[in-house]
Every structure is written in C-alpha cells, then in structure tokens.
C-alpha cells in the first residue's frame, strides 16, 4: 500500500476554511486517494475520493497535485461539528474481488475552535 | 446512501465467554466486508476480509480461531470473539461497499467490547 503522511494535529477557527494536507509520494497510477473522518467513538465517515482531477461534493473539496504525490482536503466553512480525526488513504484495489480494503494511517486531529 | 448497521453498539462480557458482533448492509449487497479493531487513541487496524460464501482472509498476527468470521449472506457478516480476555477489549468496526470497484467503503458505528 502506498503510505500517506499527515500532520498529527491542526486547528481551525469556526467559519474559516480548513485545509488538511496529505503526502502520498509513492502512489501508483491506478490508486485513488480517499478521505474519511472519525468523530470520537463512531465509525469512520466517507468524505470524498479522487484519482487525479480535483473533486468537490457537499462536504468538501479535494485538490490533488498534478504529479499526484500530495493532496489537500478543504472544508470550506468549518463548524464545531467538523472536529474529528481526518484520514487520508490511498486505496489498494484487489482485482480478484469487487472490494478493496482501506489501510488507515494515524490521521490528522482537526480541532475547530469557536 | 449505503448504510452499514452494526450490533450491538456496546457489550460487556466476562472473561472466557464468547461475543458475537453483527454487521449488516441495509440497502445494498456486500460481497466483501472488512473487520477492523481500534484501541484507544490509535488508528484502525484491519483484522480480516470477509467474503460471502467463502473463508475469511486474516491479516498477519490475527488469530483466526479466536476471531471467527462468518459471511453467510450478501447482507450479513458476523465476528465472534471466542474465549474473550480483557486484552480483547477494544472498538470493533465493520465496513462494506457496493459491488463496484472504487465505490467507497461505508462503515458501521462500531461495537465497544469490554471484557471483565
């Protein structure tokens, strides 16, 4: 699995954009970048994923560099409820089945402050 | 969106007993489900991959005889912790995805197991 590197913690003011970086310099051409978050004592929540183009949905935007060696998750207007651990994951595709596992790193603890 | 339901959310058991945790995909069929374990202040660790109708694939270091996985249907996988010990106390989480490559994995809300 391509490993990812994230800062262990970040702070953000409520209402401001939260930009969470991730390095994945060993990513392969057919590996997607996924972002999940985990609020304390809950299961991880899917946020967004992408291959090489920037992606946006109702939760966040994902910016992937042209060389695909890093990406940034953007929460445009952070709220207190966005306080969570954010995981950047490069997904290994198991071609013999439809499922492909996720290998979690340590993630970034994002704290949104009032 | 795809919903994964896990039951129970919390369980307390005595040492030596067995505990079964259920993971259901509510609105889709899941050929493959994954079981994770998470210790306090740590990240999720993959335990095993559960394939419908066949034996589970366990990660290195995970005892298959202790953590029994059954995936009897396309919507249900179960994890049984056998002869539980206090060190098995942890947060167990399952996940599943729709039968499409690169469709996101969706996670249950986890089961907090406490072995006394």
Reading the helices and strands of chain B in chain order gives EEEEEEEEEEE
Enumerate the strands of the largest sheet of chain A in spatial order, edge to edge or round the barrel. Answer: 1-9-8-3-4
How can the largest sheet of chain A be summarized? 5 strands, mixed
| Helix content percent band of chain B | under 10%
Average pLDDT metric of chain A: 91
The tally of helices of chain A reads 0
The rounded Rg of chain A comes to: 14 Å
Structural class by secondary-structure content of chain A: mainly beta
Find the biggest chain interface.
A-B, 25 and 31 residues
What is the 3D form of chain A? globular
- Structure annotation, total helices of chain B: 0
Overall spatial form of chain B: globular
- Helix percentage of chain A: under 10%
Which characteristics define this entry?
heterodimer; A: 114 residues; mainly beta; five-stranded mixed beta sheet; four-stranded antiparallel beta sheet; B: 116 residues; seven-stranded mixed beta sheet
Description:
- The complex is a heterodimer of chains A (about 110) and B (about 120).
- Chain A is built from no helices and 9 strands.
- Chain A has a 5-stranded mixed beta sheet with strand order 1-9-8-3-4, with no helix packed on it. In chain A, strands 2-7-6-5 form a 4-stranded antiparallel beta sheet, with no helix packed on it.
- In chain A, a hairpin with a 6-residue loop joins strand 3 and strand 4.
- Chain A starts with 8 loop residues before the first strand and ends with a strand.
- Chain B has about 120 residues and is mostly beta strands.
- Chain B is about 0% helix and about 50% strand.
- Chain B contains no helices and 11 strands.
- In chain B, strands 2, 4, 5, 6, 9, 10 and 11 form a 7-stranded mixed beta sheet that branches.
- The model of chain B has no long low-confidence stretch (mean pLDDT about 90).
- Chains A and B meet through strand 3 and strand 4 of A and strand 4, strand 5, strand 9 and strand 10 of B.
């Amino acid at each position: 699995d391509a490993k990812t590197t994230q800062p262990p913690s970040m702070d953000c003011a409520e209402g401001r954009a939260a930009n969470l970086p991730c390095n994945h310099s060993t990513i392969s051409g057919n590996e997607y970048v996924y972002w999940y978050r985990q609020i304390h004592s809950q299961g991880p929540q899917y946020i967004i994923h992408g291959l090489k183009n920037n992606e946006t949905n109702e939760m966040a935007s994902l910016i992937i560099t042209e060389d695909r060696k890093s990406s940034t998750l953007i929460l445009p207007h952070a709220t207190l409820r966005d306080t969570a651990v954010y995981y950047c994951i490069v997904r290994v595709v198991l071609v013999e089945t439809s499922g492909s596992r996720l290998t979690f790193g340590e993630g970034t603890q994002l704290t949104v402050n009032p | 969106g795809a919903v994964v339901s896990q039951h129970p959310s919390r369980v307390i058991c005595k040492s030596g007993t067995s505990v079964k945790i259920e993971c259901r995909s509510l609105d889709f069929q899941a050929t493959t489900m994954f079981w994770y374990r998470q210790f306090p202040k740590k990240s999720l660790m993959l335990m095993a991959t559960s394939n419908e109708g066949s034996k589970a694939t366990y990660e290195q270091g995970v005892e298959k005889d202790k953590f029994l996985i059954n995936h009897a249907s396309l919507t249900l996988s179960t994890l049984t912790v056998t002869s539980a010990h206090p060190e098995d106390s942890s947060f167990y989480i399952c996940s599943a995805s729709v039968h499409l490559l690169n469709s996101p994995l969706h996670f249950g809300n986890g089961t907090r197991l406490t072995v006394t």
